[in-house]
Amino acid sequence: MPEGHTVHRIARQFRADFVGERIAASSPQGRFAAGAALLDGTALTEARAVGKQLFLAFDTDRWLRVHLGLYGAWDFHGQISPIDAGGAVRGSLGAPRVARALRMGEGERPVDPADGDFPPAPVGAVRVRLLTEASLADLRGPTACEVLDADAVAGVIARLGPDPAADAGPEAETEFVRRLTSRAVPVGQLLMDQSVVAGIGNVYRAEMLFRARLEPHTVGRRVPGEVARGLWRDWVGLLDDGIATGAMLTRDEDDPAARERALADVGERHWVYKRTGEPCYVCGTAIAVETMATRNLYWCPTCQVGP
Ligand SMILES: [Zn+2]
């Protein structure tokens, strides 16, 4: 499932190529025909991400809310402006490149540019197609795709926990600490709860718990405030880095040589995620896996004994 950094990058891509443009909206698959008709011919005024949700505002006080869920992705074609500081769209391995067609969902990768006319014919079950004169975005497989008014959008956002990329103020940190430390629920579950903190998914959850050396079953109420604040600050840095690079670098991310290795090889990126049975990089214990909050949780039973 795309985690928060990807959704923020998708919002960036919409800001780069679609905001300010009049949008031809359609639903080639047909399932979203009524919603697309409400948006068709209006101008996109804003693109923002909160946690894993994308909100696109149109000049008629209508918003498109999209949650990609496990399988959703956006395909961009035509003009795809660079959104990285480095000045180029990044491929799935993190190498800067200019893409003619780009898929942003679970990771990011160039796709078949569909040589020929622009816009290319829809391929597969395209729920919604947003088209300007120069750029095209096709959405497939989302969990949620609906048209809302501003009040309804505010209601959705109010139910989400803080997202440091949407609000980095001290109140957001305080709110996170309050929500995490007031519950008798395992911290490994709370980090995935979008009403506690918005945007963390399965990869960041496992890696953040390892980085904090936290035992994943520790209930929120037993996590000291200082440790909770440390989790938030770690998330602020990881999310910022993920938005900048498009990759989840959670191990030795401050070491330039290690960064290069991790960008080139996904097997080098993580401390515990998807490393079941392999030796912990710190202590050599076999990495354990179990189900928590419906997803596989990876952790080191020797290192993670805190708080
Ligand atoms: Zn270990």
- Report the oligomer: single chain
Element-level helix/strand string: HEHEEEEEEEEEHHHHHHEE
Largest sheet: 6 strands, antiparallel
The proportion of residues in beta strands is: 15-25%
Shape, per Cα inertia axes: globular
Count helical runs. 8
Query: Ligands bound here?
Result: zinc ion
Strand order of the largest sheet: 1-8-9-5-6-7
Helix content: 25-40%
Write the CATH homologous superfamily of the largest domain: MutM-like, N-terminal
Q: Report how far the terminal alpha carbons are from each other.
A: 29 Å
Overall tally of domains:
2
**For the residues shown, what is the average pLDDT?**
91
CATH topology category name of the largest domain: N-terminal domain of MutM-like DNA repair proteins
The tally of beta strands, per DSSP, is 12
Give a topology summary.
Blueprint: H1 4-17, E1 24-26, H2 33-39, E2 44-50, E3 53-58, E4 62-67, E5 73-78, E6 101-105, E7 107-110, E8 126-131, E9 135-140, E10 144-148, H3 150-158, H4 170-181, H5 187-190, H6 202-211, H7 225-245, H8 256-264, E11 288-292, E12 295-299
Antiparallel strand pairs: 1-8, 2-3, 3-4, 4-10, 5-6, 5-9, 6-7, 8-9, 11-12
Helix pairs in contact: 1-7, 4-7
Bound molecules: zinc ion.
